[in-house]
Amino acid sequence: MPALAPHVERLVDLALEEDLALGDATSEATIDAAARATGRFLAKDDLVVAGTAVAARVFERLGAACRFDAADGARVAKGAFFGTAEGPARALLAAERTALNFLQRLSGVATATAACVAALAAGGGRTRLLDTRKTTPGWRRLEKEAVRAGGGVNHRFSLGDGILVKDNHVAACGGVAEAVRRARARGNALLRVEVEVVDLPGLEEAIAAGADIVLLDNLDDAALAEAVRRAKGRVLLEASGNMTLDRLPRVAATGVDFVSVGAITHSARAVDISFELG
Predict the structure, then answer these.
(1) Considering 145, 196, 205, 238, which one is annotated as catalytic?
(2) Residue 46: domain span
(3) Is 97 one of the annotated active-site residues of the chain?
(4) DSSP classification of residue 98
(5) Pick the catalytic residue: 96, 145, 205, 217?
(6) pTM of the complete model
């Protein structure tokens, strides 16, 4: 398996150090050092897979081989086996929890993302799902990869990837128009300028000021539809705030370009996956 990004390799180091700093007292006491075994990954939920590369790396670091039959982004039904690890029995058991922590969490993000993408598609429009920077510290690269596996689109990876003028920026510099003016004057010409507004007058001000994208924060469905009518394709529109699976089809039907949902990373439920020796 090819090397992971250096940042992710460091995460694997930290995770294994956290679990094995004092060794594995149970396996060392009960399992012969020469014993070998094979284990399989069992889906105990319907899920969308993500995190296979980092999970496999955990086993490799401890001298075991690991492969998955389902690639990231694949759907796996509850009750299906979808990967195998084999090698020294002690290594398999030492790697098990760390690998599952990565795999369950990241597959949970992908599964939550896929549910939101499906809900938007049910609205009959072209609205795409964006993630946010509301990620687990240190896990952003992995969680954003999981979002892509689930069919979502990545927003900014960091504060330097684009200009997003939020409410506190607007308050600090005296208004939407002034914030956009400063962003245009001082920002990199290759960076698009997005500005957050909380009402329709704010949208008009942002468009007049030359924003590329307008983030419509906590507008109701009727206001979102009116925003699309007023924008007339002059700017891209992103809707955010109070987005639920039940609401997403209605939001997509308004015609906004994007919906951002922080919950797909900050509140995704880890799916249930077990690792069974046999």
Answers:
(1) 196
(2) 6-117+269-277
(3) yes
(4) H
(5) 217
(6) 0.94
